[in-house]
Amino acid sequence: MPSNRIDTGLYFDAEAREMARRDREMIPRGLLIAMVSLALGALALATYASVTDRVPSAQPEPAAVLESRTFSLDGDGVAVSAVQPDGTVLLDTENGAFIAVVNDALTRVRLVHGIKGNPPVTLSRLANGRLVLSDPATGWSAELTSFGAGNARHWAVLFDN
């Protein structure tokens, strides 16, 4: 692309040399080597764990189910309703907050798996205090207490009814 500049001598040459030096060093060589090393290191660790069948760590211990509720979760992105198979309404709100977010994720998982209709999900309270939402139709589950105590309280309301 031709330049609209006029070659006026000294200043033009100094600016051109500065731009050439800047263009060569957009990503410093040391940083580039560090980024490639980090990516290769992560790949090496993942390969080692896969090849040696390393047992996954940092997972919560299995716990007994103290209480569970099975219901159909329905919503439009904001409003949410939870209805048990016998017709008992557990929740019907105009602002579902975190429940609406999880319902959106559930809807997406069901779309990917090709699940038609709205089969029920199960909310379980475990002995170690965790809340787990599971979808038997897809095998999907979410540890709801992992998103913080405030978000878990939204789900704990479903056990109060």
What does this structure look like?
- This protein is α+β, with helices and mostly antiparallel strands and 161 residues long.
- The protein has 2 domains: 42 residues; 96 residues, no CATH class.
- 41% of the residues lie in helices and 22% in strands.
- The protein is built from 4 helices and 6 strands, in the order ααβββαβββα.
- It has a 6-stranded antiparallel β-sheet with strand order 3-2-1-4-5-6.
- The longest helix is centred in the first third of the chain and has 23 residues.
- It is elongated and about 80 Å long.
- The termini are far apart.
- This is Putative photosynthetic complex assembly protein.
- It comes from Palleronia salina.
- InterPro entries: PuhC.
Summarize the structure.
With 161 residues, the chain is α+β, with helices and mostly antiparallel strands. The chain has helices spanning 10-24, 29-51, 98-113, 149-160, and strands spanning 65-75, 80-83, 89-93, 121-126, 131-135, 140-143.
**Terminus-to-terminus distance:** 71 Å
Would you tell me the overall average pLDDT? Answer: 87
Uncertain residue ranges: none
Radius of gyration: 28 Å
- The count of helical stretches stands at 4
Helical coverage, percent range? 40-55%
Largest sheet: 6 strands, antiparallel
| Count of discrete structural domains | 2
- Overall structural class, as computed from helix and strand content, comes to alpha+beta
Instruction: Determine the strand fraction and express it as a percent band.
Output: 15-25%
How is the largest sheet built, in terms of strand order? Answer: 3-2-1-4-5-6
Shape: elongated
Q: How many E-type strands? A: 6
The SSE order reads: HHEEEHEEEH
Protein name: Putative photosynthetic complex assembly protein
Organism: Palleronia salina
Transmembrane segments: 31-51
Keywords: Membrane, Transmembrane, Transmembrane helix
